[in-house]
Design a protein that fits this description.
About 50% of the residues lie in helices and about 15% in strands. It is α/β, with parallel strands linked by helices.
């Protein structure tokens, strides 16, 4: 819990600082562990991180994995509803692996589904992976849930995803993981940080 609270506070503080630099909202995503999600002080920890940083609630995206919902799903569901009540956005990470259920798309108060890299690795025009990925994107879009593709490593994968209507993605094709200082110094990313849209 202390490490999770520190990560949350640090992420909110960095995003808030970047927001002041660029003069527009900068979103930040933070993964929640199952222990954090079932902790009774989670909502107050999140509220404190937002209050201390000045980050708007809708700029914070909290990511959970399906595994946190196994077993007694009611307690995590209550926490997710309380977090959503603060105005925070919620994402289901690694969707399509493990015990994936399309029921999560309607049962959980989700804003985003992050499509697991297992679908993306073999993505090619006309492939089964493309068909499944496109179907998930259509279903999610129909209920107002945004799809983000994870693990995009090639221009071809990015092109196929765009053709399927998925315009948000992350992966090595765009950038490798980096420190906040490296992000601020990266020529391409620094340009996007300091140039208002």
């Amino acid at each position: 819990m202390p490490i999770g609270a520190w990560v949350l506070t640090e992420a909110c503080s960095r995003a808030s600082a970047w927001q002041r630099i660029v003069g527009r909202r900068v979103d930040v995503s933070v993964n929640l562990s199952s222990r954090q999600l079932t902790h009774p002080d989670l909502v107050s920890h999140v509220q404190a991180a937002l209050d201390g940083s000045g980050l708007p609630a809708d700029a914070l995206i909290l990511e959970i994995t399906e595994s946190v919902l196994l077993g007694d799903a009611e307690r995590p569901l209550e926490a997710l509803r309380a977090l959503r009540g603060l105005g925070i956005r919620l994402a289901l990470d690694d969707f399509g692996t493990g015990y994936s259920s399309l029921a999560y798309l309607t049962r959980l108060p989700l804003d985003i589904v992050k499509l697991d890299r297992a679908f993306i690795a073999q993505l090619a025009p006309g492939s089964q992976e493309a068909a499944v990925t496109g179907a998930i994107a259509q279903m999610a879009g129909a209920i107002g849930v945004t799809v983000i593709a994870e693990g995009v490593e090639t221009a071809e994968q990015a092109e196929v995803l765009t053709g399927l209507g998925i315009n948000l993605a992350q992966g090595y094709h765009f950038a490798r993981p980096m420190t906040p200082e490296a992000l601020e110094a990266h020529p391409y990313l620094a340009l996007s940080l300091v140039t208002p849209a």
